[in-house]
Amino acid sequence: xxxxxxxxxxxxxxxxxxxxxxxxxxxxxxxxxxxxxxxxxxxxxxxxxxxxxxxxxxxxxxxxxxxxxxxxxxxxxxxxxxxxxxxxxxxxxxxxxxxxxxxxxxxxxxxxxxxxxxxxxxxxxxxxxxxxxxxxxxxxxxxx
Length: 144
What we know:
Blueprint: E1 2-8, E2 14-22, E3 27-35, E4 47-51, H1 53-63, E5 76-80, E6 83-92, E7 98-107, E8 113-121, H2 122-143
Antiparallel strand pairs: 1-2, 2-3, 3-4, 5-6, 6-7, 7-8
Helix pairs in contact: 1-2
């Protein structure tokens, strides 16, 4: 199971989100990337995070309207191989109704920062929520 959202921003850049179920490792892999106007999305140079069932549940809480943002705007903090990443998700009304994924990654050794923001429309959020719900069911049943 995999889903992708690609959005053009106001300044002509493109931003994308791709999620897929990783049955072998018991998680979902989410890739976030962006590209300058006219350039192709380079997924290999974006930010990749592994999301377990509890992190996915936090995302679902927002997508289903139970809360406006993950952890009151603080997001989900992850650390892997010297890279710290914060994934935030919030419901938005302006400029368009939907959701905003905001992912910031910082390499501890170099201090290099990467940030990707992806707006998701309501219909895309609905599809994401269904995919995430199915993934959580599969991940939880797999461990039982």
